[in-house]
Amino acid sequence: MCMTKTELNKVVEELRSLKTLKNETEQQIRELESGIIEFLNETAECETVDKNGKPIKQYIGTDYKTTYTTQTRENVKKDEVKKYLTDEEYEKCITRSTFGVLRVQ
């Protein structure tokens, strides 16, 4: 054994503590980002266009640049695709990854 049960308990306790800190930090980051987005949306001078002529919000500070744009993402409904393809055709479209997953609850 590489560690005792007592050591494992301490490690899990430390892990939980760090995950709590991570969640709290991520929440603070989301709040700060919301404030930046609000500034960009409410400040008329932030309205500009990108290199493709698409309207964006942008502010350039002394040592940073912030931009806020809309983005589109496409998702495919697997059940709908399966209706149009045979099982064999559908299998040709699938890529699978295998990896280890640790869950500590």
Q: Nutshell version of this structure?
A:
The protein is an alpha+beta fold and 105 residues long. The chain has helices spanning 5-42, 78-84, 87-92; strands at 47-49, 55-60, 65-68. A 3-stranded antiparallel β-sheet has the order 1-2-3, with helices on one face.
Order of secondary-structure elements: HEEEHH
Largest sheet: 3 strands, antiparallel
Can you list the strand order of the major beta sheet? 1-2-3
Judged by helices, strands and strand pairing, the structural class is alpha+beta
Q: How many DSSP-defined strands?
A: 3
Helix content: 40-55%
Given as residue ranges, the uncertain stretches (5+ residues, pLDDT < 50) are: none
So what's the overall shape? flat
Mean pLDDT: 93
Span of the ends, CA to CA: 22 Å
**Which strand-content bin applies to the residues?**
5-15%
Radius of gyration, whole Å:
23 Å
* Count of discrete alpha- or pi-helical segments spanning 4 or more residues: 3
Per-chain topology:
Blueprint lengths: L4 H38 L4 E3 L5 E6 L4 E4 L9 H7 L2 H6 L13
Antiparallel strand pairs: 1-2, 2-3
Explain the overall architecture:
With 105 residues, the protein is α+β, with helices and mostly antiparallel strands. Helix content is 49%, strand content 12%. The protein has helices at 5-42, 78-84, 87-92; strands spanning 47-49, 55-60, 65-68. The protein has a three-stranded antiparallel sheet with strand order 1-2-3, covered by helices on one side. Strand 1 and strand 2 form a beta hairpin. The longest helix has 38 residues, at 5-42. The model has no long low-confidence stretch (mean pLDDT 93).
